[in-house]
Design a protein that fits this description.
By secondary structure, this protein is an alpha/beta fold. Helix content is about 40%, strand content about 20%. It has helices at about 5-20, 60-70, 80-90, 105, 135-140, 150-155, 170-180, 195-200, 215-220, 250-265, 270-275, 285-295; strands spanning about 40-45, 75-80, 95-100, 110, 120, 125-130, 145, 160-165, 185-190, 210, 230-235, 240-245. Helix 2 (about 60-70) crosses helix 10 and helix 2 runs antiparallel to helix 11 (about 270-275).
Length: about 300
C-alpha cells in the first residue's frame, strides 16, 4: 500500500468513526458545540521541501491562536489538498478548514465565517524572465498590472498553470475557463501543488503560472538560475481575504459561530497581527498593517510591541 493509499484509508476510517460518534443529524436538530467538544481541522499538505521560508504558514499560525477559544480540546488535524478538503467537509460533520475564498458556490457546501481568518497579497502572474513570452507579456502589462483576458486573446498559444480546486475571483475564474476551453490551462492537483507548479514553470512545461507571491517565495526551487517576473492581475483584488469554512451541518454551523467570536477577540491582540506580518517581507509591512487595521477595526502601529 502506497503512502497516498494509506492516507486515504486512515482519513476514510476516521470519517466513519466521527460520523458514528455524532450519529445522523438533520437540519432540524439542535446541536450545542461546547468548549470541550472535539472537532476536525483540515489543513493544507506540508510539502515545503525546497527553499521554504520559516513561519510562512499563516493559516496554521492564525488557526493555532483561535483553537483554544473554540474548544478546550485540540482539534484532530488532517492534511489534504484543496479538492480533498471540500470532499471531507461533506463527509465529516464537525470538520472546518481555513484560508478559503468565499464564493456563492462554496457557500452551498458549508458555513463561512462572518469575518476573514486571514488575508494575503493578491495573486500575480509569474513568467520566467528570459522565456519566449516574457517580452510580449511585459509589453501587454501596464504599470506592472496585467489583464488575463487581454492575455488570453492576444497570445492564443500561451499555456498557463494553476492549482486545481482553488477559486480565485469570479472574473479570473471565467478567464481561466477561457484558457481551459482552448486546452491552454494546466491544473495541478497533485499533493506537491505549490512546489510542483514552480517546477513546471522552471522546466517550461507551462509558460506562466497564477500564484501568490508568498508561495512563490517559499517554494521556488534552489537549484535553478531562472529569474521570475510577476505582474499584478487586474481581475483580482490587491488583497485576498481567506475565511473559515465549516461543514454544512448543525455542528458546523455551531463551530463557525465559535470561530467568529474567536476571530473577533483574537484579532484585537498584537500576536494575531504578527502572524500576518511574518508572512510578508518587511518592505510590505506598512500596506499589510493598513489593510489589517481596516479589516479588523484595530489601530496598531508597526513599532508597537
Amino acid at each position: 500500500m502506497t503512502a497516498l493509499m494509506r492516507r486515504a484509508f486512515y482519513i476514510k476510517l476516521f470519517s466513519c468513526v466521527i460520523c458514528g460518534l455524532f450519529g445522523a443529524v438533520t437540519a432540524a436538530d439542535t446541536v450545542a458545540i461546547t468548549r470541550d467538544a472535539p472537532f476536525v481541522w483540515l489543513k493544507a499538505i506540508n510539502n515545503a521541501t525546497t527553499s521554504g521560508v520559516k513561519n510562512r504558514d499563516i493559516d496554521g499560525a492564525t488557526a493555532a491562536l483561535l483553537f483554544p477559544l473554540v474548544s478546550q480540546q485540540p482539534p484532530q488535524q488532517i492534511e489534504a489538498n484543496f479538492e480533498r478538503q471540500f470532499k471531507l467537509l461533506q463527509e465529516i460533520p464537525v470538520a472546518c478548514s481555513g484560508k478559503k475564498i468565499y464564493t456563492p458556490e462554496r457557500a452551498r457546501l458549508g458555513h463561512f465565517s462572518d469575518i476573514p481568518q486571514l488575508f494575503s497579497v493578491g495573486l500575480r502572474l509569474f513568467v520566467v524572465k528570459d522565456s519566449a513570452y516574457a517580452e510580449i507579456i511585459a509589453e501587454l502589462a501596464k504599470a506592472g498590472r496585467l489583464s488575463m483576458a487581454t492575455l488570453a486573446n492576444s497570445l492564443p498559444r500561451l499555456m498557463v498553470g494553476a492549482v486545481a480546486g482553488r477559486s480565485y475571483t469570479p472574473q479570473l475564474d471565467d478567464v481561466l475557463q477561457q484558457f481551459a476551453s482552448t486546452k491552454r490551462l494546466w491544473l495541478r492537483s497533485a499533493e506537491d501543488m505549490a512546489s510542483g507548479m514552480t517546477q513546471m514553470l522552471v522546466s517550461q512545461r507551462v509558460d506562466a503560472i497564477v500564484e501568490y507571491p508568498t508561495i512563490m517565495a517559499d517554494f521556488s526551487p534552489d537549484n535553478t538560475d531562472k529569474v521570475f517576473v510577476s505582474y499584478q492581475i487586474i481581475e483580482t483584488p490587491a488583497f485576498t481575504d481567506g475565511y473559515i469554512l465549516c461543514a454544512a451541518t448543525p455542528q458546523g454551523e455551531a463551530l463557525v459561530k465559535r470561530f467568529n467570536a474567536a476571530i473577533r477577540e483574537r484579532s484585537q491582540q498584537r500576536d494575531y497581527l504578527d502572524a500576518h506580518l511574518q508572512w510578508f517581507e518587511p518592505a510590505r509591512h506598512n500596506e499589510i498593517l493598513a489593510y489589517y487595521n481596516k479589516v479588523y477595526g484595530t489601530h496598531f502601529v508597526l513599532d508597537e510591541h
